TrEMBL record:
PROSITE patterns (UniProt xref): CYTC (PS51007)
Organism ancestry: Bacteria, Bacillati, Actinomycetota, Actinomycetes, Kitasatosporales
Transmembrane feature ranges: 239-258
Protein's cellular compartments: Cell membrane
Protein name per UniProt: Cytochrome bc1 complex cytochrome c subunit
Assembly behavior: The cytochrome bc1 complex is composed of a cytochrome b (QcrB), the Rieske iron-sulfur protein (QcrA) and a diheme cytochrome c (QcrC) subunit.
GO cellular component, one term: plasma membrane
Ranges where the Cytochrome c domain occurs: 46-125, 140-218
Superkingdom of source: Bacteria
Binding site for heme c 2: C153, C156, H157
Membrane topology qualifier: Multi-pass membrane protein
Catalytic activity, EC: 7.1.1.8
Keyword annotations from UniProtKB, A to Z: Cell membrane, Electron transport, Heme, Iron, Lyase, Membrane, Metal-binding, Repeat, Respiratory chain, Translocase, Transmembrane, Transmembrane helix, Transport
Catalytic activity: a quinol + 2 Fe(III)-[cytochrome c](out) = a quinone + 2 Fe(II)-[cytochrome c](out) + 2 H(+)(out)
Length: 266
């Protein structure tokens, strides 16, 4: 013990301990952190390369070989992964045929391929990223979401999300059964005729509140009055019903009166 204590008290003992500590720290860092980072980089590079192949075979005809755009399609540089995920996941792209607006249809690519396409387009320029599940989870403030929706969205989508017609054959699609992720991405990227709402204009929490309102309104809100007429409101729908019912009653009265014996003798 005396011999060991003498070694510990040696002037170089502290330096030796420090060297061993630095070596151990460096070894641990080299064993874990760089390997994970390199693995992540390799995975991202593979996804970008795969996405580029998909792009060249399925998208470059309209958007150009370098995504610079053409007369048949807009440029994709800087649109971000969120725009690609929205357009391709909802089946709007690839476009089936030229028209005033790309309609929703079954998607052509698999989720893995959509992720690869998104990675490739994202590598071309900085743009909105695909939101995380927490960002569009429908657990926001539904009251605030209703107010924001009425202020920013109801002019086109109807206050209940039923959709509506626009000019020149365009339309605002109904929001029923739309994935919350796609509602969030649409607000973030502004597809087709829709304006975009980046975080600088509409913070993340406000977009989440709107998602919550749309989800509650289109999926859970009961319709005790029976068949709705686009949820125009009880007064409008009631007036429309009375007009139809009154017209039918008048028509029946005229039909019955025309078949009475007195009417036939004239």
């Amino acid at each position: 013990m005396k011999k060991l204590s003498a070694r510990r008290r040696h002037p170089l003992a502290a330096i030796v301990v420090l060297i061993f500590a630095l070596a151990a720290t460096g070894g641990l860092y080299a064993a874990f952190a760089p390997a994970k980072k390199a693995e992540a980089d390799d995975s991202a590079s593979i996804a970008v390369e795969a996405g580029k192949k998909l792009y060249l075979s399925g998208c470059s005809t309209c958007h150009g070989l370098d995504a610079q755009g053409s007369s048949d399609g807009p440029p994709l540089v800087g649109v971000g992964a969120a725009a690609v995920d929205f357009q391709v996941s909802t089946g709007r792209m690839p476009l089936q045929q030229p028209g005033a607006q790309a309609p929703r249809k079954p998607e052509v690519y698999t989720p893995a391929q959509i992720e690869q396409l998104s990675a490739y387009v994202a590598s071309l320029g900085v743009g909105p990223k695909i939101p995380t599940a927490n960002m569009y989870a429908p657990d926001g403030d539904i009251v605030n979401g209703a107010e924001l929706f009425r202020t920013n969205c109801s002019q086109c989508h109807n206050f209940s999300g039923e959709g509506g017609a626009l000019t020149q054959g365009k339309f605002a699609p109904p929001l029923k059964n739309v994935d919350p992720k796609h509602i969030y991405e649409a607000m973030l990227t502004g597809p087709q005729n829709m304006p975009s709402f980046p975080d600088s204009t509409m913070p993340e929490q406000q977009k989440k509140d709107i998602v919550t309102y749309v989800r509650e309104t289109t999926h859970k809100e009961p319709n005790p009055g029976g068949l709705g007429l686009g949820r125009l409101g009880p007064v409008s729908e009631g007036l429309f019903g009375w007009i139809i019912a009154l017209g039918l009653l008048i028509g029946c009265a005229i039909w019955i009166a025309a078949r009475t014996p007195k009417a036939r003798t004239k």
